[in-house]
Specification:
This protein has 10 helices and 3 strands; from the N terminus they run ααααααααααβββ. The protein is globular and about 65 Å long. α2 packs antiparallel against α4, α4 (101-129) crosses α9 and α5 (136-156) runs antiparallel to α6. Helices cover 71% and strands 7% of the residues. A hairpin with a 4-residue loop joins β2 (309-319) and β3 (324-332). With 333 residues, it is mainly alpha-helical. It has helices at 6-37, 48-82, 89-97, 101-129, 136-156, 166-203, 216-222, 225-239, 245-268, 275-300, and strands spanning 303-304, 309-319, 324-332.
Length: 333
């Protein structure tokens, strides 16, 4: 890192201020989620077990995010206020205490927060696709991310270590690359699936699915796009060793909490994709496509006026899980 840390210090300060603002957003989303869970008008009969899970999950996200925000704020206070006259200035204090125990705790909280958010994102991908094969590779990448995250946490937490210098920084780039790659893949799968279903429904004129499930806002929330985009910004700045990377790190960690909380809020409010809705939509698409093909077949074999004979076509369709047969019976009058 450069000798002068002026840009880094300013980016750290601005990042802490954004942490405070976005932490307020997270609190609002959390209490909106809890309120929706206990609202009799919005609760579904089969949602009690999932609601309990989402209560604990949301609380875990909030607690981990609180740890990160608090440790960053405390470190800033120690560096700029309490030890303002530290020999060598703030840059020297940063170099000597970057691996202080509560900073390591904050890093650990952010890594666990990543794991929880990515786990939820993979689960939502499975829900939207309703196919386990789609999430096999993301799960493998998720396990690799977990391993690299532990190595990065150990290296950055060693005495006199620094998250942004040396082997810790190299492991940090590897870890962040794995996380962002996972985010891009899963977010792309979710976006692609929702866009595909929405366009197919529009082309086949299916009216049984509400528009709120395929709007731009729904795609943005369901795919955790804010989480992915801020992660890309952080990865680029971190990989090129920019002193502004600490600012993007702050925004990224906050989005790691806010994005899944927005998904949970949509789920408990009954506006998110579910496995039943995904199955129903796919079934409607197949049924409508089959009906249209049957109509086209009837028109094709309906009436032949050129030779003065009427042809009657009877469409007999036998479908099962692997095949379908169509028999055309013609009777010439």
């Amino acid at each position: 890192m450069p000798e002068s840390q002026a840009t880094f210090q300013n980016a750290f300060y601005v990042g802490n201020n954004f942490n405070a603002i976005l932490y307020g957003v997270e609190l609002v989303l959390y209490f909106m989620t809890v309120r929706a869970m206990f609202n009799p008008k919005q609760r579904r009969m089969d949602s009690r077990r999932s609601d309990r899970f989402f209560v604990f999950f949301s609380t875990a996200l909030l607690c981990l995010n609180t740890i990160f925000v608090a440790t960053e704020a405390v470190f800033g206070e120690e560096m700029w206020v309490i030890n303002a006259d530290y020999p060598g200035g703030q840059d020297a204090y940063l170099g000597d205490f970057a691996a202080v125990w509560y900073q390591t705790l904050g890093t650990a909280a952010s890594i666990v927060l990543n794991l929880l958010s990515d786990g939820l994102l993979i689960y939502r991908c499975w829900v939207v696709w309703d196919d386990k094969r789609v999430v096999i590779f993301p799960i493998v990448l998720y396990l690799g991310t977990f391993s690299v995250g532990l190595a990065q946490l150990y290296e950055s937490g060693r005495p006199n270590a620094n998250y942004f210098v040396g082997l810790a920084a190299q492991l940090g780039v590897s870890y962040t690359s794995c996380v962002i790659s996972l985010n891009i893949i899963v977010s792309g799968l979710i976006c692609g699936r929702i866009l595909y279903l929405s366009r197919r429904m529009a082309s086949l004129s299916i009216l049984g699915v509400d528009g709120e499930y395929v709007t731009a806002a729904a795609i943005l929330v369901e795919s955790a796009a804010l989480y992915t985009l801020t992660g890309i910004a952080y990865l680029v700045s971190f990989a090129i060793a920019s002193q502004t990377s600490i600012f993007f790190l702050s925004i990224y960690v906050m989005m790691t909490c806010i994005a899944p909380q927005m998904i949970i809020l949509r789920v408990v409010a009954g506006r998110a994709w579910t496995r039943d809705r995904s199955t129903m939509t796919s079934t409607n698409l197949e049924f409508t496509k089959t009906a249209q093909n049957a109509t086209e077949t009837r028109l094709e074999f309906g009436i032949d006026e050129s030779n003065g004979s009427a042809k009657h076509a009877e469409l007999v369709s036998t479908q099962n899980s692997t095949s379908s047969t169509v028999d055309i019976v013609e009777a010439v009058a």
